[in-house]
Design a protein that fits this description.
CATH class of the largest domain in chain A: Mainly Alpha
Radius of gyration of chain A: 23 Å
Order of helices and strands of chain A: EEEEHHEEHHHHEEHH
Structural class of chain B: alpha+beta
Largest sheet of chain A: 4 strands, antiparallel
Largest sheet of chain B: 3 strands, antiparallel
Number of domains of chain A: 2
Number of strands of chain A: 8
Oligomer: heterodimer
Order of helices and strands of chain B: EEEEHEEHHHHEHH
CATH topology of the largest domain in chain A: Butyryl-CoA Dehydrogenase, subunit A, domain 3
Helix content of chain A: 40-55%
Helix content of chain B: 40-55%
CATH architecture of the largest domain in chain A: Up-down Bundle
Shape of chain A: elongated
Strand order of the largest sheet of chain B: 6-5-7
Structural class of chain A: alpha+beta
Strand content of chain B: 5-15%
């Protein structure tokens, strides 16, 4: 019996490969590999069990490239069009951040910058790094790389923030005199970046980081 | 409770021991969460899911934000936000928003209610396996909390220009976020532990 952090005791055994066990990633059941030879499905929840996610690095890379491709129009194209007393105006995400910054709302500017610019960019770098090190069978810092993977999974969906802000603004600003707001193409690309990078992170199998250590 | 736990992130196998309230089991090799103490019984699960359904209904029936200028009022909630993105081919973003802030939370609430209702009377509901698989797959796509933050940012953004007010819906969204988080801690993996006691 060995004490784990946070007061929880567990008996550490071996890697699942040595014990001929396999994890059902859907319901968490440990399934013996012998039974998988007969039926590839989990006896409890009927999900297909794979020792490693099939084509994990290929799918992760494909979604990552799609994400980077969408990221460019998402930032270059306007996300919103406003019209009213002050004239017509197209605004981009970066333009919106600068506007908040200039008007003194630095905290909101920072929040949108983190959610819309920094988070997707960090995800590209992080997923790229994970892919590269896994492809090279790297033994470098597996613990830190697993932590990086968890961060990427956790921060993923917060980038949807700007899509929601634009949608709410367009729903509320429907005044003929004072102003009206309409969504523009950039926001669709931005939504695509969020979805595609989430799919990229979900395609990555973190067990690959630890595989060639033994 | 599974007697053998396998780490999702690094494949290390553990023999589980009983946990007490508040316990979290971490993988010794990679620090992933192996298991949490699962205290929710069927009754408290049902209570939470009913609360979630009520908050979800309030959030969708009352305005989350509203602007009133000289008698002309505009309102916004999840559906208004989705509809405002319907603009030519940009509507794909409307689909994405509708899916993550309306469809996924609604289906999660409905399916968990279905499962728990049957568990309450000691039965495994029809379609239990597919339902649990669906719940597992939908988990990362529920974005209620992001919507809440988006509404708060929209308030700050527009408050400089127009008299913007938060409606009852924003409190409902906040409460829904908390209830879904409580239910989310008891993820589908844990809900399986209800099933074995139930006749197949």
């Amino acid at each position: 019996m060995v004490d784990c952090p946070r007061g929880q005791a567990m008996t550490p055994l071996k890697q699942s490969l040595e014990l001929s066990l396999s994890l059902c990633r859907t319901c968490g059941l440990a399934v013996s590999r012998e039974s998988l030879k007969v039926d590839r499905r989990c006896p409890r929840c009927q999900s297909r069990i794979e020792l490693r996610t099939p084509f994990s690095t290929e799918m992760t890379l494909a979604w990552l490239i799609a994400g980077i491709a969408f990221y460019i129009p998402a930032n270059l194209l306007p996300v919103m069009h406003t019209s009213g007393m002050l004239g017509e105006e197209d605004s981009t995400i970066l333009g919106g951040i600068l506007e908040f910054w200039r008007s003194g709302d630095w905290d909101i500017a920072l929040l949108i910058f983190i959610a819309s610019v920094a988070v997707p960019f960090t995800k590209f770098i992080a997923i790229g790094l994970l892919l590269l090190t896994v492809r090279k069978n790297s033994r470098w810092q597996p613990h830190q790389r697993t932590a990086l993977y968890r961060i990427v999974e956790f921060i993923g969906y917060w980038s949807m923030l700007d899509v929601i802000v634009v949608a709410l603004t367009a729903a509320l600003m429907q005044f003929e005199v004072l102003g009206a707001a309409e969504p523009r193409a950039g926001i669709a690309f931005f939504c695509a970046v969020v979805v595609v990078t989430m799919l990229s992170a979900q395609s990555f199998d973190p067990r690959l980081i630890w595989d060639r250590r033994a | 409770m599974n007697t053998i736990l396998i780490c999702r992130d690094c494949d290390t196998v553990y023999r589980a021991i009983p946990m007490r309230r508040g316990d979290v089991a971490l993988c010794r090799r990679c620090d992933a969460v192996l298991a949490r103490y699962f205290g929710a019984n069927v009754e408290s699960g049902l209570a939470l899911i009913c609360a979630a359904a009520i908050f979800f209904a309030i959030a969708n029936l009352t305005p989350i934000l509203s602007i009133d200028i000289a008698g002309i009022e505009t309102k916004a909630n999840i559906w208004f936000a989705v509809r405002s993105l319907q603009h030519g081919w940009i509507s794909v973003a409307a689909l994405g928003l509708a899916f993550t802030t309306f469809v996924v939370p609604a289906v999660q609430i409905a399916l968990l209610f279905w499962v728990l209702l049957f568990a309450r009377v000691g039965h495994r509901p029809p379609g239990f396996g597919p339902i649990m698989r669906l719940l597992h797959r939908m988990r990362p796509w529920s974005m209620t909390e992001v919507f809440l933050l988006g509404a708060l940012v929209a308030i700050v953004k527009l408050a400089n220009w127009v008299p913007i007010k938060a409606g009852a819906g924003i409190w409902a969204i906040a409460a829904l976020t908390i209830v879904l988080a409580l239910l989310g801690r008891c993820d589908p993996e844990s809900w399986w532990s209800i099933a074995p006691a139930v006749k197949p």
